Structures
1.
Amino acid sequence: AQSVAQPEDQVNVAEGNPLTVKCTYSVSGNPYLFWYVQYPNRGLQFLLKYITGDNLVKGSYGFEAEFNKSQTSFHLKKPSALVSDSALYFCAVRSSGYSTLTFGKGTMLLVSP
Amino acid sequence: EAGVAQSPRYKIIEKRQSVAFWCNPISGHATLYWYQQILGQGPKLLIQFQNNGVVDDSQLPKDRFSAERLKGVDSTLKIQPAKLEDSAVYLCASSHPRREGYSYNEQFFGPGTRLTVL
């Protein structure tokens, strides 16, 4: 079985400050990890993924995520938040031998001006 | 490149009625997924197709939900009869299964259909 935990329902940050959205996972075998963003009334958009290699992954819109195998975490980060980053963020995982993605419940990011 | 198309965008029905959703994936994408996203939760996979064959439907409530992808391109998801707890956004996604090897699984999502069951 595979699962994802996003411990924060909401993250509040001021524009220009760094942001972190947390994600931990549980999976058998090697994890493939993903972050998606969802804007109101729109489908999910892919941000970045970790498959193998460098633990720091860079993605769209200046976001990055760090894979930490010992802590089974894949936190999403951005050095300087924008108001336009306000959205719902989903972490997802699948194992290397299984094609189905399992999503977390999502974290609402609110960036204040 | 055109994205994943879904229709209708919104649907309101009464319980015990039937409803159908349509999805047209990105051209050339062999894999198609239907997800159910209940308010406050992450998307949950209902069914996954590879071309016109079912890969995974373990979480599809088969007593009331059905899906088909007869020609391996567009797909329909049907609920008959609907229950109150079926109120959710139904997302369709597609992916190219063999780009960068099998590990590549970036899924492209459509805008979703918001279903309200009264």
2.
Amino acid sequence: QVHLVQSGAEVRQPGSSVTVSCKTSGGTFNTNAISWVRQAPGQGLEWMGGTIPVFGTTNYAQKFQDRLTITADDSTNTAYLELSNLGSDDTAIYYCARVTGPLESWGQGTPVTVSS
Amino acid sequence: EIVMTQSPATLSVSPGERVTLSCRASESISSNLAWYQQKPDQAPRLLIFGASSRATGIPARFSGSGSGTEFTLTISSLQSEDFAVYYCQQYYNWPPLTFGGGTKVEIK
């Protein structure tokens, strides 16, 4: 069973960037596909993008193409999400999840608040 | 992009009742459909994958059916811990992975 632990809550000003980490344990990290999903307050789930470290591939949802970077560090079994040029509508809980077709295992979520 | 549509948005149910939730895909996704349960202040949890296979540890009262564009999640006898929001998600043609808007199952 793969276990995912995310970094803690963040508060950012509009126009800045945020990085959220997702450390995995169990399984083989570089064969795991990791996706990032966010959930705005009171809203549904929105897929942002994902990476498959063993293939070195990364995919992004079109709406985030210009300001989202997803990376993975094999040496620490950690995936990262960096979102730039934050706006108030980026206030949300950000989840990482292991993808085996469905999203099999999820991190606990990282709240990100964008406020001046 | 495949659009997933769930109905109803909210379902008011009494404990012990049978519950049926619907999910429709904008085009055929074969059986590449998952269902998730999300309780307040918790991450989503995988319930069903492959349209009808229960994930590890999921009680037998949860069952999924369907293929192509029409899918159903059934809870045979609703327990108190089952009041939550349920999401469907396709993984047939991605990126992007797409979710339905969710169905909230609340106490009647």
